[in-house]
Every structure is written in C-alpha cells, then in structure tokens.
Specification:
InterPro entries: F420-0_g-glutamyl_ligase (IPR008225), F420-0_gamma-glut_ligase-dom (IPR002847). Pfam families: F420_ligase. GO terms for molecular function: coenzyme F420-0:L-glutamate ligase activity; GTP binding; metal ion binding. By secondary structure, this protein is an alpha+beta fold. The chain has 2 domains: about 160 residues, CofE-like (60s Ribosomal Protein L30, Chain: A, 2-Layer Sandwich); about 70 residues, CofE-like fold. It contains 6 helices and 12 strands. It has a 5-stranded mixed β-sheet with strand order 1-12-2-8-9. The chain has a 3-stranded antiparallel β-sheet with strand order 4-5-6, covered by helices on one side. The protein has a two-stranded antiparallel ribbon with strand order 3-7. The chain is globular and about 55 Å long.
Length: about 250
C-alpha cells in the first residue's frame, strides 16, 4: 500500500430516533456522487447509529437505586446518569472523581459505559447509549450498501474511547461487518528475516481511529467517512474479536 484516501460523506441530516440510517447513508453517497468500490470501508459514528435505533434515555424518567446515589456521591455525577451507567454495565471496574470505568454489557472496558450527553440534541436530559448490537447495525448498513451499489462494502461502527496510561481519546471499533477485525502476523518474517511470534494487527481499530480524524469529536457534523486504498481481509466481522480475554488482561 502506497497511499490511502479518507472521504467525508456530506449531506447526512441530523439523525433522529426512528430514521432509517442505512437509507440515509445510501442517499448521501448518491447525492455526493461517491460510489463505493470493492475494498472500500465505510466508518459510521456510533452516535448516529444509537440515535436512529432509539438507544437514548431521558434522565427525567430514571429513578436511581441506592448504589447509584452512593456512586454519585463519590463521582459528583447526577444519580440518574449513574443509574443509566449501571444498567449498561456488568461491573464497575474503577471509581474516580467525575468518571466511572465499567465493563459494558458488550464487553468493552470504557468510561461511563459509553453513556454520553454530547451531540445528542434531543433535550437537555437525554443521553445516548451504545447500540444494542453494533455488529448487527454494521451488517444492516453493509447489506443496504451492497444492494444499492452492487458491490460488497465493509462497515465499521466507531466510538471514542480512552486508553490505559495514555491521555486523550481515539476512535475505536465497536461494531464491524464485511472484514476481519484482526489480522495475525504470527509466523511471517519481518524485513530482516525475524519470524514474528505474537504480532496481531487490530485493523478495525486502526481504521476506526483514522476515520475520527475527519469525523471529529465535537461539532464537525461528519458522522460517516469512506476509507479507500487500505487492503483488508474480507470476513464476517464482529467487534467481539477485539476484546481481550480477562485472564490475559494485565490492566484490570
């Protein structure tokens, strides 16, 4: 690979619950005269997927349990928000001022179980959750693109996650379809003949992070980008492949 291209998809409207996101993406690609080719990858921001699917909660309708009140006291968070975080989590990993690190029901270790106020736009007390099944969301978008453009198009759903021992957040794959998220390099020689023993490339995360450069994390309004020129291995996808076995997770 000598070059790659990341193309922002313009014309995607403010997504609201109940909208058919795959159709919106197909129409935006047609309007921009961008035709996906074999090997292209469409990366879609989690927020628009969640909003379209109705994965949102109005905190005005939430009654916090006792544990939520206790953790709210430790973190300074709204007890109603903490209650939603607990509902989305299988366990609380760390508690700190203004943040809860939890294991999300999908297996991700992340801040506040991915529950977020930003870029929701459905009311001051409405928060966004991660999609119920991001892989299924990716498959639905991939199928719609394949039918519309008569070519297979891999799809990644990305979200911004922090990383242990590093400042800042980067785009991370939370759902995938049409490509293998991991590529093992074990057994291959490097350029000097050394045989790689443990190297596994998280291709889906690399693509998710690259897409964030155009998607942004603030007010950019660019929830989908097309990546072209990056060789990927076709496969069923599945972001669960990117999750490390807890027995081998040295950061917990």
């Amino acid at each position: 690979m000598s070059s790659a291209t990341i193309i922002a998809i313009p014309g995607i409207p403010d997504v609201r619950p109940g909208m058919a996101l795959p159709d919106l993406l197909v129409r935006a690609l047609h309007a921009a005269e961008i035709r996906p080719s074999v090997g292209d990858i469409l990366v879609v921001a989690q927020k628009v997927v969640s909003k379209a699917e109705g994965s949102v909660v109005d905190l005005a309708e939430v009654t916090p349990r006792a544990e939520a009140h206790r953790l709210a006291g430790e973190t300074g968070k709204d007890p109603r928000l903490v209650e939603v975080i607990l509902r989305e989590s299988t366990q609380v990993v760390r508690v700190h001022a203004e943040v809860l690190i939890t294991e999300h029901r999908l297996g991700f270790i992340c801040a506040n179980a991915g529950v977020d106020h930003s870029n929701v736009g459905l009311g001051p007390d409405v928060v966004c959750l991660l999609p119920r099944d991001p892989d299924a969301s990716a498959r639905a978008i991939s199928a719609a693109l394949g039918a519309a453009f008569e070519t297979p198009v891999a799809v990644i759903i990305n979200d911004s996650h922090g990383r242990p021992h590093r400042e800042g957040a980067v785009g991370t794959c939370i759902g995938a379809a049409g490509l293998e998220p991991l590529v093992s390099l074990v057994g291959r020689p490097d350029r000097y003949g050394y045989t790689l023993r443990t190297s596994v490339e998280a291709v889906a995360d690399e693509l998710a992070a690259a897409a964030t450069l155009l998607q942004g994390q603030c007010d950019e309004g660019t929830p989908a980008v097309l990546i072209r020129g990056v060789p990927v291995k076709e496969g069923p996808g599945g972001a669960a492949q990117l999750l490390r076995d807890p027995a081998r997770d040295l950061f917990r």
